[in-house]
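Continuing from yesterday's entry. The apo prediction looked reasonable, so today I'm repeating it with guanosine-5'-diphosphate included to see how the binding region is handled. Same sequence as before; SMILES copied from the compound registry.
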Amino acid sequence: MEPLKVVVAGPVGAGKSTLIRTLSETAVVDTDALASEDIGKPTTTVAMDYGTIHLGDQLLYLFGTPGQDRFDFMWDVLSEGALGLLLLIRGDRPEDFVPARRLLDYLTSRQPVPYVLGVTRQDQPPVWGPEEVAPFFGVPLERVVGINAKDPQSAAKPLIRLVELIAAEEAAS
Ligand SMILES: Nc1nc2c(ncn2[C@@H]2O[C@H](COP(=O)(O)OP(=O)(O)O)[C@@H](O)[C@H]2O)c(=O)[nH]1
Ligand SMILES: [Mg+2]
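Holo prediction written out below.
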């Protein structure tokens, strides 16, 4: 089975680095460095996070995109070969939803890849859940998974869903 490259995208603070750190079976290349812009967080990811995980027989390479606006180049580089998109959003920051929706449009218009939305911070109510986020984004509920990015079982769920969706698309084509 061909390894699957998964791009983990989403606004700053969504939980991209955390999810990759939580799940990765190999040492994580974590490139958090001093932020060049004031984004209200002492560090941010300027290059990318990288990790790997097996889901059954399927090997996934996880690439966390920079939180700021510098991943266009990376998207083009990564989007060769098997690819899926995990878009993370903070369930307690609805002000991020509109820019995240634009990001989803932008990324899937460059290349129509299978995607899943992961709504983080489900362990910290009050928080928007998948039933509320799915209609806001105008995507099917099956593509939206609520998670705690710090919990391995929970963090794996959107990736399991992504692999299922890709398998279903392959079976249908
Ligand atoms: N409680 C809780 N904290 C989270 C969750 N996801 C991320 N965080 C925290 O949110 C902060 C930002 O996460 P980070 O992974 O650096 O976000 P990134 O900018 O998308 O890489 C960190 O302090 C994480 O521990 C979550 O699902 N639940
Ligand atoms: Mg990060």
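Comparison notes:
- Residues 4-172 form a domain with the Rossmann fold fold (CATH 3.40.50.300).
- The two ends are 17 Å apart (CA to CA).
Will overlay with the apo model tomorrow.
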